[in-house]
Amino acid sequence: MTKEELNTATLRLFNISRDLFEKMSQKDSRVINEEKNLLEGDFTAEPFNVHIKLTIYPENGLISIFSLLPFDVPPAKSSEVAKLLCTINYNDLYAGNYDYSVEQGKVLMRLSIPFRNSILSKELIEECLQYTISTVSKYNNKIFETIRE
Known about the structure:
Elements: H1 3-24, E1 31-33, E2 38-43, E3 50-57, E4 62-68, H2 78-91, E5 97-101, E6 106-114, H3 122-148
Antiparallel strand pairs: 1-2, 2-3, 3-4, 4-6, 5-6
């Protein structure tokens, strides 16, 4: 793909993503930054709302969807949470993964989609957002309970 084609694809994907964020995310939480190809917002889910940050990286031909969990892991639970996340990543996730920063105590779910030489549809982007929301919803409580035990 030429640089111009990547820029055109980026603009198209940003517009699709913006429309989906406007449709799906909570209005008062929405951040739309066209200059940085960045969208953020809270999505209704249980047991916590899911905060999603979607960034399009034209230089790499990637869309990344991140969800930072709404709690930190205390140092005393670091090893236990790391083992749990490795188990979830290995056994349960077929797309995306959990990342954990031991130094910061932060956990995030990440799903990246390459789009170089591809045409990504609105339906695929929506499915990726729904997948991220459902995955985080499914495991948030399990991770949270691990740090509370």
